[in-house]
Each structure stands twice: as C-alpha cells, then as structure tokens.
C-alpha cells in the first residue's frame, strides 16, 4: 500500500486538489486561503507546494493530500486512497475495509443505475415522449448528456431486476435508496425470492436527475414526474438520506459549477434542477440549486469555499418570498454578500433561459443587493409617511440588518433607512440595539474557532525548543548543524521532546528530508506536530493581514539565536535551583555546601552576562 500512497502523492499536486475546493492565492512560494474547516475572515490556511502539505494556523488542522480529502469529504483513509488513486490513474489492489467497501459499493450501484436510466432515455421507453418534453423545455442533446439525465420507466421492478442481474445482493441495492420496502408482515424473509419480493423501484415513470457530489460522483437522484404521468403523485421525489446522500450538504450542479464560481467570484442560486441545467446551457455556469430542502448553513459553507458572494433567484409568491428571506438572513449570518435576481412575475430561470437567454444573463447582472430587496418589500407594504408605518418598516429592515456581519455595510443601511424614513439616525440605532438584545434568536451565530492548539501552555524554553525544531524541519542545513552542535546541556534538554529526539537521532537516516520524516510517521501525532512546527517556522500569522511568509534568508543564524536564548533559559532555571539549594544549606548550617553553591551561582551568572 505504501508504494501506492507515494505514487499517488507524486502524481497529484496538492495545490490542484485543494484548489478544487477553496480559492487559493499565492503567498510567496506557497499558497493560502480562508480555511474550509473553520469560520474565519482572514486567511490562515496555508498550502506548501514544495512539501505537498497544508496547515491551518486558525484551527490547527493539517496534513497531506489524503488528510485534506478525508477532512473535506468526511472519508476514511481507505476511501480517500481509492478516490485519489482513481484520480491519479493508479490501480489499487483489493483491500477489505468494511465501511469503505460499503460506501464504494453503493457508489458503484448508483453509477450503474445512472447508466441504466440514461440508456432508457436515449434508447428505451423514454426515447419518444420524454426526449420530446426535454427538447420542448429547450434542452440540447449535449446538455442532456452532460447532466446525465435519464428516465425511469413505468413498472415496479425494472431497475431492481437490472441490478440483480449484475449480481448485487438485494440488501446492497436497498442501501442506495433506489428501492422502497413493502409494508409486510414477513419482516424476516427466509428465501432469496421472498427478500426480493419485499422491494420495488422507488422511481417509476419519472425523469431522472442524477445528483452528484463536489467530485462529480453520483450520490443520489431527484426524479420528476413524467409529462402525462401520474400527476397525483409528488412532482419531485428524491433519494432518501443514505450513507452517500445527505440532502443538507448537497447542491445540485456544484460539480459543474465550482470552477466557474471561483473564477467569477459569485454563485447563482436558483430554485430547481431544470433551472440549473437551463442556466448552464445559457452560459451561466456558476449556477446551483438546493435539492429538496431550504438553503442550509452546510450548503453555504460549501459555497464559501469558492466564493462568498451569492445571487439568488426566488419564486415571486408568498412561499417563495418567505424562503427568500430565510435564505438571505442565513447568508448574511455566514458573512455572504447576498443579492437578489428579479426576472419578473410568474417566470422561472429555466423558462427564461429557453426563451431569452440574453435576458436571463442581463437579469443576473442587474441583481440588487438583498438589503435593497428588503427595502423595496417593506416600503411597498407599509405607509412610510405615517408613524405606525415607519415603525413597522424600521422593525423589518433592522431585523435583517442585525444579521449582517460587516459593520461598514450595517452603518450604510442604517443611514439609508434613517434618510428614507426621515427620522434621526440615533433613534434607528436605538431600535437596532433593542433587536439585538431581544428579538432575534432564530439563527444562533457560529463562533470563531479560537486560534492555536489547545492543551497545556508551554514554558518559554519549550516554545523556543519548538521554534528550533521547526527551523530544522524547514531548512535541512539547520537540521544538520543542530546535530553537530556541541552542548550536552542544550541537546539533553531538547531531547526531552519526542519529536526533537526523533529528528535528532534519525536525521542522517532520513537524509534530513522533512518528507521522509512525515512519511515514516504518517498521520501520527509526531507527523502532525512536525507539520505544524514546519509551517510555524515558515510563516507567521497576523490577525489583520492573515498569514505571511517569514523571511528565512539564513535559517541557521536564527536557529543559533534561539539556541543562545535557550542556553540563557536553562541557566536561569539552574540559578533558581541553586538559589533554593543555598537557602536550604544555610538553614541547615552547611557552610561548605553554601560556599560551593555560591561560587557556582556566580559562575553561571557570569556566563549568562557574557552570552
Ligand atoms: Zn482552520
């Protein structure tokens, strides 16, 4: 397995992999971003291209390509290994991690099901009326193929039989959410046939929209009732929650939209799957939709990896407006810059994309700040010339303002409101204070993760020791020189620390290579600490500017300085102990000892002064 791990690491550049999830910007020889794993405003997340590792100064997480994917996608090591091996085009030998195998099998079945549905659409029962419907909606063949649309034919066991024919167990197929289990009084089937007869296809006579994760792997489906089909059934049916499909963390179209979201620096959020597809076809490729839920904070976290601006489409009915308000407030709270796209009453993005794509693009460009949208709504609803109306308007607007993160923006809207209502700004501010302390409880704000590692505080000499260790890891010349350093006092103190002891004793064996060290101790505490100290040696964190690269022109000069500091610390420690011993000797009347100790004391004091 290890050779496969190294092979993968040599083929996949960590900057490319992480760049698929977060917006990296160049920082010296390396890259930085806002951490995808905790909420922060100033970037403290670093990627070292040279060492092929990453580290966050904010939450202390870090690792290599595998660690990143595991953290990002919530995977086990073996699952991450599989995905990266595929990406790198490497054949892995079969392994038997049970949980990973389970999920892989589910993904395998979902992929087969996707192909089955596609085939039904292009060559099977859906070829006529379904294709015609999709074309009527303005979709081109290319788009239909790209989004892998399909058709689930009418009948109870089409997909079930197809998958059984591929030699999957009924229990395995059931885990994908593709089947429905009958209500039965025979819950413990004794024969295979009985077990099979307990299930039937979830999707029947429906247009199938495969839903993919960020990596483009199908994790579930959204299925629309076929035109002329049984309209008494729900218009859309989705896969239930499974090991692979978590509704609140899925955004329809994200795999195809993420690059464009990054490069255009905003997301277009529409209502339905067809809106996403039609918008992509119209050239607005940074479009996604939530699928079967209201917008969640998990989904916003995903979007934030790529951009913190979002333009939202909403249905212009009361239900749509209610959803709009909730989504906007949640976005404010997550620090998003939110705008609202207005395409006029009674239309959806898909329709407009088909009829007049240029107009759709223009509407997105003309999106208005979400706060302006709230202003328009409130001022239309109440009479702003009357006292009662002013109060209602101020209440609504300020509630929204109280969700905003940015103080500059807040004060902009407060001034604006005061002006429009023709009241003093101070009274507006007073109202806002009341709202802050009372009314708004709906969305508990997320706290910033406090910086750094938790754990017992380090003494000054331990902090210096870590700095020296970090410099050794960042600069092999320093590593070598510390090995040759001639002071038992210092080296013995340093060797109390396990990481230092390892790099001191194994330096030559590891060719003074940081990569070889972390390879040998992969994912252990030693590895994590080595990576953290490495990054801390290379960078420093500044609350205003984020992470900055240290100027390490001469690492050894700096290391020597720290060693001198450490010598002083050790001397000071010794002096304290001698002082205590002198006191004790005097108390006991042991003059000889006291004299000897005092001589020692002045010798060390002199050393300390000369240093
Ligand atoms: Zn972090």
What is this structure's SSE topology?
Layout: H1 2-11, H2 14-19, E1 25-27, E2 30-33, E3 45-48, E4 53-56, E5 62-63, H3 65-73, H4 77-88, H5 98-122, H6 129-136, H7 141-146, E6 150-152, H8 158-165, H9 170-174, E7 179-181, H10 192-197, E8 199-201, E9 206-212, E10 218-225, E11 236-238, E12 251-252, H11 254-264, E13 267-270, H12 273-281, E14 287-290, H13 297-304, E15 309-313, H14 318-333, E16 337-341, H15 349-355, H16 357-365, E17 368-369, H17 370-381, H18 387-401, H19 407-421, H20 425-437, H21 460-474, H22 476-483, H23 488-494, H24 498-506, H25 514-520, H26 525-538, E18 539-542, E19 546-549, H27 555-587, H28 591-610
Parallel strand pairs: 13-14, 13-15, 15-16
Antiparallel strand pairs: 1-2, 2-3, 3-4, 4-5, 6-9, 7-8, 9-10, 10-11, 12-14, 16-17, 18-19
This protein binds zinc ion (ZN).
């Amino acid at each position: 397995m290890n050779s496969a791990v190294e092979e993968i690491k040599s083929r996949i550049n960590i900057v490319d992999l992480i760049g698929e999830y977060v917006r990296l910007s160049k920082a010296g020889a390396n890259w930085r971003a806002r951490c995808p794993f905790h909420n922060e405003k100033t970037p403290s997340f670093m990627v070292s291209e040279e060492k092929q590792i990453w580290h966050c100064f904010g939450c202390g997480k870090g690792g290599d390509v595998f660690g990143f994917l595991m953290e990002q996608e919530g995977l086990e090591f073996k699952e991450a290994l599989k995905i990266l091996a595929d990406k790198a085009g490497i054949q892995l030998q079969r392994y038997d991690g049970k949980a990973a195998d389970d999920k892989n099998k589910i993904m395998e079945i979902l992929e087969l099901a996707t192909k089955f549905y596609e085939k039904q659409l292009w060559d099977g029962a859906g070829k006529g009326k379904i294709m015609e419907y999709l074309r009527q909606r303005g979709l081109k063949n290319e788009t239909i193929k790209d989004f892998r649309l399909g058709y689930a034919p009418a009948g109870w066991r089409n997909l079930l039989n197809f998958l059984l024919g591929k030699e999957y167990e009924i229990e395995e197929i059931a885990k994908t959410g593709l089947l429905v289990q009958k209500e039965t009084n025979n819950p413990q089937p004794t024969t295979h046939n009985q077990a099979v007869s307990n299930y039937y296809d979830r999707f029947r006579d429906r247009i199938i929209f495969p839903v993919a994760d960020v990596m483009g792997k199908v994790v579930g489906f959204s299925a629309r009732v076929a035109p002329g089909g049984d309209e008494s059934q729900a218009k859309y049916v989705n896969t239930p929650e499974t090991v692979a499909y978590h509704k609140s963390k899925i955004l329809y179209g994200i795999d195809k939209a993420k690059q464009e979201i990054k490069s255009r620096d905003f997301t277009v959020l529409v209502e339905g799957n067809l809106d996403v597809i039609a918008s992509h076809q119209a050239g607005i490729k940074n479009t996604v939709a939530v699928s079967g839920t209201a917008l969640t904070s998990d989904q916003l976290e995903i979007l934030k990896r790529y951009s913190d601006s979002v333009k939202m489409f909403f249905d212009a009915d009361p239900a749509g407006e209610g959803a709009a308000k909730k989504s906007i407030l949640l976005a404010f709270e997550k620090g998003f810059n939110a705008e609202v796209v207005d395409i006029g009453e009674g239309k959806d993005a898909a329709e407009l994309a088909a009829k007049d794509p240029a107009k759709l693009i223009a509407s997105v460009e003309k999106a208005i700040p979400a706060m302006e949208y709230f202003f328009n709504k409130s001022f239309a609803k109440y009479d702003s010339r009357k006292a009662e109306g002013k109060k209602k308007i101020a209440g609504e607007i300020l509630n929204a303002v109280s969700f905003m993160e940015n103080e500059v923006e807040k004060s902009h809207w407060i001034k604006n409101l005061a002006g429009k209502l023709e009241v003093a700004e101070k009274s507006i501010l007073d109202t806002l204070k009341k709202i802050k302390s009372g009314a708004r409880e709906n969305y508990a704000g997320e706290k910033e993760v406090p910086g750094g590692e938790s754990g017992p505080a380090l003494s000054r000499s331990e902090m210096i020791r870590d700095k020296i260790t970090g410099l050794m890891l960042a600069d092999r010349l320093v590593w070598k020189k510390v090995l040759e350093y001639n002071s038992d006092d210092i080296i013995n103190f340093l060797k109390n620390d396990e990481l230092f002891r390892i790099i001191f004793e194994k330096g030559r064996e590891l060719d003074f290579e940081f990569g070889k060290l972390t390879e040998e101790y992969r994912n252990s505490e030693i590895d994590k600490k080595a990576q953290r100290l490495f990054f801390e040696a290379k960078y420093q964190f500044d609350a205003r500017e984020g992470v900055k690269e240290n100027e390490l022109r001469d690492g050894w000069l700096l290391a020597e300085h720290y060693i001198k500091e450490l010598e002083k610390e050790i001397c000071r420690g010794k002096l304290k102990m001698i002082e205590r011993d002198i006191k004790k000797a005097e108390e006991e009347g042991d003059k000889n000892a006291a004299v000897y100790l005092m001589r020692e004391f002045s010798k060390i004091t002199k050393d300390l002064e000369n240093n």
